[in-house]
Amino acid sequence: MDGLAERQLQSVDEVVATAGAAGIEVWLRGGWAMDFHLGRVTRPHVDVDWYCWRADVDRLAASLTGRGWQPDPRMPAEVQLDLFWDDVEVSFAYLAQDAGGKVTVGAGPWAGTQLPTGMLDGPPGRIGSHTAPVISVAAQIEFKEMFPVWMPERPRRPKDADDLARLRASFIA
User: Cβ-count burial of 87 within 10 angstroms (0-12 exposed, 13-18 middle, 19+ buried)?
Assistant: First the structure.
C-alpha cells in the first residue's frame, strides 16, 4: 500500500472519530466503500467519498476545519462539502429525507431524488484496524451500474467495470 492510501485510511479514522464525537452520521461511498466492504485496498484512490445529512454539514465542516482540514475553494459548498489536508481530499455528498422518510439526494441538480432503499443499512466495513460505516453493497452496485446512464457524458471507466465485478462477486459469496 502506498503512502497516499495510508494517509487516506488515517483520514477515514479521523472523519469517523470527529463526526462521531459531534453526533454526526457519515457513510463511505465510492471506491473506499467497496474496499472497506471487501476488507482490503484494491486500487489507488484519488479521494475519499462520503455521505452526510445536509442538516449536519455546517457542524461537520466546523469540526473538521477545527482539526486543520481546509475547504476546497474550487468546489461549491452548496452541492457538497469538499475538504483537503495536504494531499488527502475528502468529499461529502449531502443526503436528505422526503416527507415519507425516504433517503434522497440532498443538494444539486438531483436534489429530492430518492436513493436506493436500505442504502444506509449496510454493516460497517473494515480494513485491518480501520472501521467505518459504508453504504450497502446493493447501493454500491446500483450506483456503479447507473452512473454512465445518469451521466452519459462520463462513460464507465475500466476501474468502474473492475469495481462492479468485485462487488458482484462479493455480493453473491
Answer: exposed
